[in-house]
Amino acid sequence: MADTIIRFINIVDQQPVDVKAIDNGDGTYSLSVALGVGGEPVDVQVTPTTDTSDYASGDIIFDTTALAGFVVGSGNHAVLENIRIIEAQDQAAFSGYIYFLRSNVSMGTINSAPNISDANAKEIVGRIPFAISDWVDLGGCKELNLSPGAIGLPKRMKATTGTTLYIAMVATSDPGTFTASSMDVLCTFAPN
Q: Both 103 and 80 in a single domain?
């Protein structure tokens, strides 16, 4: 029989707690609490490395960057609920894709077209599109905020091992230039 998840409601805080019955293959089961289920959302903030030369449509804005601790407990899933990016250079708004990968494989070279191998492309667990109109000009910077209801969100994800997921960005229109650390990325994950 396959592994089974049993959901209970904690009588103290009324939050769901999942217990996983793991099939040992010999007619017996082991029980484990599926950590990260029914808990608080996890915010992971990173500042990916960007190139300082002029970018073009189709270029990788930043390559795989670790989102360490996106989920509580190795082997658990989390649901990506929100992505917020602050672009401090206040460059022209651009369209593109945000990729999520379950392991640390490269999409290619920053400021060049993606050049990911077939084997490494299998590590992509999600792709979230964004449009020029999704950016908001805040005066000295721009903000991209993708919440539930945006195409592709919410999105359930799991790392290959451990508690780290990886993120990369590819432009589909001309983004201009950036400093080496002009983007600040905040991802919110809900336990699942």
A: yes
171, two tokens: 């432009």
Domain that holds residue 18: 1-34
Check: pTM over 0.85? Answer yes or no: no
C-alpha pair distances (Å), 94 with each of 24, 156, 169, 178 = 50, 26, 11, 13
Tokens, residue 52 = 């300082």
Residue 52 vs residue 21, higher pLDDT: 52
Counted domains in the chain: 2
Average pLDDT over residues 99-121: 95
Q: What does the alpha-carbon distance between residue 78 and residue 129 come to, in Å, rounded to a whole number?
A: 19
How do strand 183-191 and strand 42-46 relate by DSSP bridges? antiparallel
Residue 7 CB partners (closer than 8 Å, separation 6+): 16, 17, 18, 19
Q: Which position has the token pair 């994800």?
A: 157
